[in-house]
Amino acid sequence: MGGGNDDLVPAAAAPRVPVHDRDGHRLGGFPVRRIYCVGRNFAEHAREMGASAPASKAGRGTPVFFLKPADAIVIDGVVPYPPGTAELHHEVELVVALGRDAPAGILAPEAAMPLVFAYGIGLDLTRRDLQAAAKAKGLPWDTGKAFDHSAPVSALLPAAGLDGIDDLQLSLDVNGTARQSASLRDLIWPVADILHELSKLYALRAGDLVFMGTPAGVGPLLPGDQYRAALGEVLQLQGRIVAAV
């Protein structure tokens, strides 16, 4: 028998997010390994979802994590309205792309930032009715978060070309109306601290994306809606919701 690939079923290629420079020129692709998401990382959003928010860094407790499948990525902005829900919600987020493997063991916060390769903007799309029903029964709410086309993301901008990210404003408009807006300084758990906490639970690797949590103002999206997310003047993500086929 000859050599070569001996897979018995065809394997899907890793999803890839384009990487651009500040002028919009494509530099290459970023193959996605995993998508980690952070819940309740803006105090006002935690409150609007009925949860308590820490009064200070000392009282912030432990961050909330969940995952989405890598193939939930949407890079052209076009999102088919998902099945099984009548309440699709938007959550705009900073996206952190890791370009290096973390060392073995728990990652110190001061050693975290060299792992960051690039930044983007994403939407953590949520089937809110399914999430709420699962929460009410004390059940896992994966079906509310981890579904097809649930992670639209912009092109990534290398971290080396983006200074002062903490001073930038994260925002989302739907049909030209402002829905969400907050400074990244309002994050309860900043990037280095989130990577530190994730490393206590997972082996962080090159190709991982981290959706950093959403500000207040989450709300519904319907077929025909146009959305535009922005990170200051340096990154944007535009797209639309279309009727399911």
Number of DSSP helical runs = 4
Stretches where pLDDT falls below 50 for ≥5 residues? none
C-alpha-based Rg, rounded: 18 Å
Main-sheet strand order equals: 4-3-15-8-9-12
The rounded distance between the terminal residues' Cα atoms is 44 Å
The CATH architecture assignment turns out to be: Alpha-Beta Complex
Average pLDDT rating: 93
What does the overall shape look like?
Answer: globular
The helicity comes to 10-25%
Record field, number of beta strands: 18
CATH superfamily: Fumarylacetoacetase-like, C-terminal domain
β-strand amount = 25-35%
Task: Tell me the series of helices and strands, N- to C-terminal.
Answer: EEEHEEEEEEEHHEEEEHEEEE
Q: What does the largest sheet look like?
A: 6 strands, mixed
Number of domains: 1
Instruction: Please report the first level of CATH classification, the CATH class.
Output: Alpha Beta
Helix-strand makeup class: mainly beta
By CATH, the topology is Fumarylacetoacetate hydrolase, domain 2
